[in-house]
């Protein structure tokens, strides 16, 4: 809403030197005293929702001129719901804190701020110390935990190593046993094979001897048969010869 700059002394909320109904005071550099001001009710409603930065009180020395009625027809002063007076610039329509309230408030605020800062610093220091202590404690705890974990890990590793060694030893023993068993079995097998071979050889020899004997017997039988045959032949031959001789004798006897 643009601000119309009316004449001095009109009842439109501009700061003047003489007003019957005053609702607030603005103390400025002019005349070094107080100025009575009147603010219309409608104007008060218009500024009931002041910007947030008013609360923070960010006002500089430049704003001193805003309070003076000699510039731009003077500022408008109104009472805020926030509990402190504020001024609105007639041309830019900016709302600022009233200087009278601000000066005292600034000093108060400065003192409060200093105290707060000191308290905050102390609190911060305490907090830092506490944090440091906590951090140290945490670090110590962490270190202890790490150490414990390392120890546990080492123990576990040692245990594992021992178990592995035992397992290895067991495996070696098993292998040795297996080898011994295998060797024994091999030996047994060899012995059995040898025995079998011997038996086979014996059997073969026996068979050969039997065959030899059989052959010999056969040969003997054959020889015997041959002899018998020869004898038979001889007998037949003699018989034949005797018959021939007898026949010859008989023939000769007849011839006489």
TrEMBL record:
Positions with biased composition (Basic and acidic residues): 244-256
Superkingdom of source: Eukaryota
Name this protein carries in UniProt: Uncharacterized protein
Biased composition (Basic residues): 106-161, 187-206
Region (Disordered): 103-256
Comp. bias regions, Acidic residues: 164-184, 220-233
Species annotation: Halocaridina rubra
């Amino acid at each position: 809403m643009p601000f119309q700059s009316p004449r001095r002394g009109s009842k439109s909320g501009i700061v003047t030197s003489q007003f019957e109904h005053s609702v607030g005071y603005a103390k400025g550099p002019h005349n070094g005293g107080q100025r009575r001001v009147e603010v219309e009710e409608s104007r008060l409603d218009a500024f009931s929702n002041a910007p947030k930065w008013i609360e923070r009180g960010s006002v500089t020395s430049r704003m001193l001129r805003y309070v003076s009625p000699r510039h731009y027809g003077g500022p408008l002063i109104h009472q805020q719901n926030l509990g402190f007076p504020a001024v609105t610039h007639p041309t830019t329509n900016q709302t600022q804190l009233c200087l009278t309230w601000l000066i005292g408030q600034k000093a108060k605020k400065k003192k409060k701020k200093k105290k707060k800062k000191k308290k905050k610093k102390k609190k911060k220091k305490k907090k830092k110390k506490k944090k440091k202590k906590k951090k140290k404690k945490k670090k110590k705890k962490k270190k202890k935990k790490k150490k414990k974990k390392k120890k546990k890990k080492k123990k576990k590793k040692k245990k594992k190593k021992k178990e592995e060694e035992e397992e290895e030893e067991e495996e070696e023993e098993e292998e040795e046993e297996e080898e011994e068993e295998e060797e024994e079995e091999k030996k047994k097998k060899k012995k059995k094979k040898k025995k079998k071979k011997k038996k086979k050889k014996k059997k073969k020899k026996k068979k050969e001897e039997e065959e030899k004997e059989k052959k010999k017997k056969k040969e003997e039988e054959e020889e015997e048969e041959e002899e018998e045959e020869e004898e038979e032949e001889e007998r037949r031959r003699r018989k034949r010869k005797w018959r021939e001789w007898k026949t010859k004798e008989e023939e000769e006897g007849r011839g006489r």
